[in-house]
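Sample intake sheet
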Amino acid sequence: MARGISDLRYEMVIVWSEEDDCYLVNLPDFPEQTYRTHGGSYEEAAKNGQEVLQLLLEEDGLHLYKLRPATA
């Protein structure tokens, strides 16, 4: 089953920055930095944010996606 951004169980905030002329990605569950990554489009920023989130969670041994109960 394919998984997408809507399956994430961690918050991702994407905002436009006039100063940087790009979308900036904040991951509030990882407050060490205000912005973790960016993208030229909203979609690119979301993709980059998901990749950064995956790396952060792998470092901590956590899961990226919601665990769903098995179906019979």
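Comment: The two ends are 16 Å apart (CA to CA). The first helix runs from residue 42 to 60.
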